[in-house]
Amino acid sequence: MCKQFKGQKGFTLIELMIVVAIIGILAAIAIPNFMQYQAKSKQSEAKMNLGGIYTSEVAYFGEANTFSPVFTTIGFVVASTGTQRYTFTVDGTTLLAGTSTGCTTYTGAAVSATSFTALATGNIDGDAYCDTWTMNDVKVLFNGAGGAVLNDVVS
To answer: CA–CA distance from 52 to each of 4, 45, 120, 147 (Å)?
Structure first.
């Protein structure tokens, strides 16, 4: 029933070990790059959501002649609330809480009639530090708790 073919050869153990070593080297190179690109996309998500909050605040200011820290008032909605990586606040009022960000909440000053600051806080790369992004009423984007001004302006 079981016939053996003459001259049939297979892979040797050395050849299989070389292939596994090559795959391991490629994975060691690719995984850190993937993690870096994933972190950049999460940062872009925060910046774009802050841009949306800015747009909603400016639109509300056009109607009411004041800024509002209340999420439902400005009409800003994040589509994927179940997978939210950041907690969004406007001057201390939480607009949208992220899923277990592990970061302290923002305790800023009260919103005024002529200014606001929106903040996104989250731990997207799993280290000991929280990633924070802020955008104010003149559309200046800040990165970090120290308030270092970036050259980015979300359009």
So the answer is: 69, 11, 12, 20
Strand 141-143, strand 117-122: pairing: unpaired
Coil vs helix vs strand at 101: coil
Q: What is the number of helices (H) and of strands (E) in the chain?
A: 2, 6
Domain ranges of the chain: 46-149
Name residue, tokens 């939480």.
Answer: 94
Q: Is the pLDDT of residue 20 over 50?
A: yes
Token pair in block for residue 109: 């000053």
SS3 call for 124: coil
pTM for the model stands at 0.68
**Are the C-beta atoms of residues 87 and 69 closer than 8 Å to each other?**
no
* Distance of alpha carbon 77 from alpha carbon 93, whole angstroms: 15
